[in-house]
Amino acid sequence: MHRLEILFRLAWRNLWRNHRRTLIMLMAVVLGTWAMIFMTALMRGMVTDVVKDGISALPGHVQVHHPDYRDDPSVANLIAVSDADLSARFNAAGFVKWATRVRVPAVITSEYDSRGVTLLGVDPEYERDLTFVDYDSVSGRFLESADDSGIVIGKKLAETLNTKVGKRIVLMSQDPDNDIADRGFRVVGMFEANIKAFEENYVFAGKTTVQKMLRIGDQVSELVVLGGDYRDVEAEYNKTVELIDGSGEVKRWFELDPYLGSMLGVMDGFVLVWIIVIFLALSFGLVNTLVMAVFERVREIGLMLALGMRPINILGQIVVESSLLLAIGLAIGTGLSWASVQPIKDGIDISIVGDGLDMWGMSSVLYPELLLSDVILANVVVLVLGFLASLSPAWRAANYEPIEAITKV
Amino acid sequence: MNLVFRLAWRNLWRHPRRTWLTTGAMVFSNTLLVFMIALQFGMYDLMIDNTLQAFTGHLQIQAPGYKDDQKMRQTVADIVPLAESLRAELTTASIAARGTAFALVSSEERSYGIAVFGVEPEFESNVSTIPGLISKGRFLGASDAAEIIIGAALARNLRVDLGDELTLLGSGRDGSFAAAVVNIVGIFDSGVADFDRSMTEIPLGLFQDVFYMNGSGHHVVFDAGGIDGVAELQSRVGSLLPPGQDLVVHDWDALQPGLKQAIKADMSSAFFMYGILVILVAFSVLNTQLMSVLERTHEFGIVMSLGLTPGRLGRLVLLETAIMGALGLILGAILGGVITFWLGIRGFAYPGMEELAAKFNLPARFFPQVSAMTLLIGPAVVFLFTLLAAVYPALRLHRLHPVEAMRAV
Fold it and tell me: Which structural domain, as residue segments, surrounds residue A305?
């Protein structure tokens, strides 16, 4: 114990003998650490944003469909169990955020133009937490009940169709027998979405109304469940599988959208690569600093050896010196990255490249996400690899021949 | 000069380990920069080419406002003769006229709302890759034949095959009811189900009949071969537009505003990372050069008392750094070039990248290309920063007093 204390004290004093060199190296470590963590926080924020928006478009962390629905999203592929039966099962199970929907392709026609859209027949009561539409900011109103006879469309779509709240439009789709199913709706609300494409692609109508229009009785296309954390949906998944009991295909969000699913994995890999690259760039300077420190002290290391200090302690001294340097740099760098995330915590506006971000499925406000796990990863990687990098110069120092070292000029 | 160079060279190799470590930091980041920049810019070019050549083209003539509203009534009058005269004037075949409408496409069993494009069968293959993606059957023939080509995923969903009939239902230019029965003559397969599901093509003549276009269409599409000649072509096309008709020429950036911005967003985050890497190398150099100046205090004192000016000594230090930087530049460029070249033959892939790449019309395996620009730009910047880092140690020499310096151990 006492020996360890001496080792630390020696290493600490040695560190500050050439304070200029130590400070420069320290600055490099601080900058490197800051860049590792800050950049990672920004990238995490981006990915979370993409994934969250993506999930809100899907939406739902766990979804149930007819097994053929995903390749063929038509009215012919409905969940075998009736909506009433599903509701009974899921309400009894105590799920809070879940909903059933009719989701079919349709053509919407105004007196001026027509467009292909995805028609969502929803029950507004269940949908509030699930959809990307904020009920309160809809101009006009959102649907009021499952048998509401109105329709809510995106602002962009309304412009294209030259229609507005209060006007009538016609929806055309098919019933299960492939007869044309059409119905006139009055536009009761227009929504805005983070991602402009949603405004063009989705229209909302009452679930019961849509079921009547499509002549599908009490059946629905999908059931969606929202869990607490999108990263861990296993509990919801298992429970849903149990409740559905084989009468539909149950999928997690990352299986439904491989782009989103692979995004998280790629990002994890990328964070690690980024941290290691930065460390490697640092390591040259670190090893260099240690080589210099050892070189300057050849005589005194020889003297210590001659006086009986064991080589392992010389090695320890150098390694502790490098670890102290890294630890200080990591502490300051981590603190700095935390501090630089604070002022932009509520989002940075990056709308100058908004359309490009749309392509990625991102909105134009970026929220950095500082994850404890990333901070720990960066710190551990630097400390462990830094320890390994300092072994070589320390090893050399420990193996000096005392007489030769003392007489060296 | 020769003498100074020799001095600088010898000084560098007083501490070969230190010099190699510092050079190693440069080689490392130069190699990385060469590879990353080649990958990045190659990817951008591919992204632009694949996205534009698939369908959009480099330039389009449209009615004013059509780009944003895409209303049926915003037409280009007499579009076929216009495209014909442009092909004659510009002596190129890579110009084709198109019309766009949305319709409910129905087979015996299924119906989908989808975009229907009217294209000139004999010229479309010059401005789009879709005719080349036909995997079954053939591309469209005569301009007024009742034919259609659809995507493989859509064919599967509609449960149809070659030779089957489809019904189109939509609204014409004047808002009246438009309907047609067409024969499937070809099925294209782009490999991306969503793209295949997003559009169908029929001959332009038929399109004009069915949708009451009265000889008009919506876009004249140009393929400029690459993005370099686009600006020039745009101004030439602008001067060739028929007088009296209100038309605009949009370039690819206006047509696909996401593309350039997606590249910009990606570039800014990449440059941030490169910047960090370069600064870390600069720190490493600063440390080395400061040490090498400080340890020579005694020797510098002597030569100064012999009459050497601090300015000349400073130039010596800068020259040492420049030699080291040049070494790093050459080795890094060679190593980076070799790695990039090798990956250019073998192909580069990152686990999980497939899904991400598909989103941006990129292949899963990527072949970076070496060019003088990608080979030198990164290392040149590193070289510059290396020199900048040596300025402080060089300037410190001015603070040296010969007598005091000579006394330094």
Answer: 2-54+260-407
